[in-house]
């Protein structure tokens, strides 16, 4: 496509160079792309134009200012308002892909992975887009829900390769910033709602109302909602007029915890689920009911449920040790993770290693500290991703929720904290390491280092 064709309904231009794609992230620019330079949360895209040119961009669209650079630069006032038009015009096949969107505070990644796995087992080609990666594609994103141009580009690629179904984690940031605008989300799944991201949304009501917007989209024909959640009725109201399916733990006729997971009975089928934690039972039910909403019979779905595998860093047991790594980074998630080990290992003490991320919701830190100290027998506080905050200040915020009588070990070096916790673990103890899960880096104010909780544990002899 020529760039003047792309911009014909936005701003006339005499520039008629051939373009091969659109990109908002300079590091992801491919040869022949147009780089779209917008104001971000902390920096403006204009600062990355040289990098985009080095990567091969052939033109720049710039928001509300005139610039000169080594490639044609076209000014477009209110550029962000035209992103959907630009994306839909260039990547016109993207809207032909049917999308299953999953939202909720916790569980999005697990539910998305389970749905994708079940579809694959039923021989439905699908793409998975979320926290862990973008499957079946060369596209990359550090966000749970990628930016709108990356999404459209990915989905357009899916369609061209015969993939007509995508499973997408839909974050509140993604909804609020219109990253999914215009896409064909036909099924919307609600996992749960608890406190998170109040640094961005300011209060729970604003956070909840943004999440609920997914369920009132005109493209959505079917919603799958967790009726065990306290906010179920709010999301059901948002889904008014849609075909609704709900789920809850009492869908199982019987639930028996084992050291490996649960032995359950569902619609007269008896089978084992290899997951710890009742929250994972709900995640499985979310996936199961989504497949039912897509038209698959129980007899085809249920025999596949025991074959599901958890995503990395989600209550992941490491080797043969009683050590688990989990992504829990909210008060609700950390409580569920600790209770999970207490349920499956009732005769063991729980040792917990965790911290809180910098430049994120500060209000949850003391709450997480209080929960951790009430439920865990031993507590080691360490760095998560401090980002631009002082690590000790974050620890102090957590300590505000912990009674002075509770003995806390503080080891800021996360690798040392994990190594010490593992090597000194008693025979009657389980170790839970939370906060970072699958992540392979750690972010500080002035650097990002390679660090994986999973790898640290695996390398200890």
Helix content: 25-40%
CATH architecture grouping of the largest domain:
3-Layer(aba) Sandwich
Helix/strand-derived category reads: alpha/beta
CATH class of the largest domain: Alpha Beta
How would you describe this structure to a colleague?
- The protein is an alpha/beta fold.
- It folds into three domains: 3-87, MurE/MurF, N-terminal domain (Udp-n-acetylmuramoylalanyl-d-glutamate--2,6- Diaminopimelate Ligase, Chain: A, domain 1, 3-Layer(aba) Sandwich); 94-307, Mur-like, catalytic domain (UDP-N-acetylmuramoyl-L-alanine:D-glutamate ligase), CATH 3.40.1190.10; 316-458, Alpha-Beta Complex (Protein-Tyrosine Phosphatase, Chain A), CATH 3.90.190.
- Helices cover 31% and strands 20% of the residues.
- It is built from 16 helices and 21 strands.
- It has helices at 3-6, 49-55, 83-90, 108-121, 148-160, 172-176, 198-201, 204-212, 232-238, 278-293, 298-301, 331-344, 363-375, 391-399, 414-423, 453-458, and strands at 21-23, 33-37, 59-63, 73-76, 98-103, 126-129, 165-169, 185-190, 222-226, 243-247, 254-257, 262-266, 269-273, 316-317, 323-326, 349-354, 378-381, 408-410, 429-434, 441-443, 448-450.
- The strands form five sheets. It has a six-stranded parallel beta sheet with strand order 6-7-5-8-9-10, sandwiched between helices. The protein has a six-stranded mixed beta sheet with strand order 14-15-19-16-17-18, sandwiched between helices.
- A hairpin with a 4-residue loop joins β11 (254-257) and β12.
- α3 (83-90) runs parallel beside α5.
- The radius of gyration is 23 Å and the shape is globular.
- The mean pLDDT is 95.
């Amino acid at each position: 496509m020529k760039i003047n064709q792309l911009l014909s309904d936005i701003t006339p231009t005499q520039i008629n160079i051939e373009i091969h794609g659109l990109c908002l992230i300079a590091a992801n620019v491919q040869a022949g792309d147009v780089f779209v330079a917008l104001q971000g949360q902390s920096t403006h895209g204009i600062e990355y134009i040289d990098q985009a040119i080095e990567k091969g961009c052939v033109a720049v669209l710039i928001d509300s200012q005139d610039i000169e650079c080594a490639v044609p630069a076209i000014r477009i006032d209110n550029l962000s308002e035209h992103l959907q038009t630009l994306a839909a015009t260039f990547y016109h096949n993207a809207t032909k892909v049917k999308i299953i969107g999953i939202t909720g505070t916790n569980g999005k990644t697990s539910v998305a992975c389970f749905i994708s796995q079940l579809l694959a087992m039923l021989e439905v080609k699908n793409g998975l887009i979320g926290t862990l990666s973008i499957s079946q594609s060369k596209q990359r994103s550090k966000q749970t829900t990628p930016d709108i141009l990356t999404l459209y580009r990915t989905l357009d690629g899916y369609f061209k390769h015969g993939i007509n179904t995508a499973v997408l984690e839909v974050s509140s940031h993604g909804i609020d910033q219109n990253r999914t605008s215009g896409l064909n989300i036909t099924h919307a799944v609600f996992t749960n709602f608890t406190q998170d991201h109040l640094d961005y949304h300011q209060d729970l009501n604003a956070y909840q109302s943004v999440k609920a917007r997914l369920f009132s989209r005109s493209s959505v024909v079917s919603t799958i909602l967790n009726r065990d959640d306290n906010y179920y009725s709010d999301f059901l109201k948002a889904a008014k007029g849609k075909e609704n399916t709900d789920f809850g733990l009492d869908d199982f006729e019987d639930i028996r915890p084992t050291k490996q997971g649960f032995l359950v009975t569902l619609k007269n089928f008896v089978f084992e689920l290899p997951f710890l934690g009742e929250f994972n039972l709900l995640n499985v039910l979310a996936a199961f009911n989504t497949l039912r909403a897509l038209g698959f019979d129980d007899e085809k779905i249920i025999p596949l449920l025991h074959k599901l595998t958890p995503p990395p860093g989600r209550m992941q047991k490491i080797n043969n040790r009683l050590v688990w790594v989990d992504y829990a980074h909210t008060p609700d998630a950390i409580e569920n993770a600790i209770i999970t080990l207490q349920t499956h290992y009732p005769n063991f003490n729980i040792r917990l290693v965790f911290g809180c991320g910098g430049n994120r919701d500060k209000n949850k830190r003391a709450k997480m500290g209080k929960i951790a100290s009430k439920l865990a027998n031993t507590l080691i506080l360490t760095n998560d991703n401090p980002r631009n905050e002082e690590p000790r200040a974050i620890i102090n915020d957590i300590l505000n929720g912990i009674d002075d009588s509770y003995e806390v070990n503080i080891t800021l070096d996360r690798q040392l904290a994990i190594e010490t916790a593992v090597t000194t673990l008693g025979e009657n103890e389980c170790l839970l390491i939370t906060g970072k899960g699958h992540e392979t880096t750690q972010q500080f104010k002035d650097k990002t280092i390679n660090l994986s909780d999973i790898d640290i544990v695996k390398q200890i002899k």
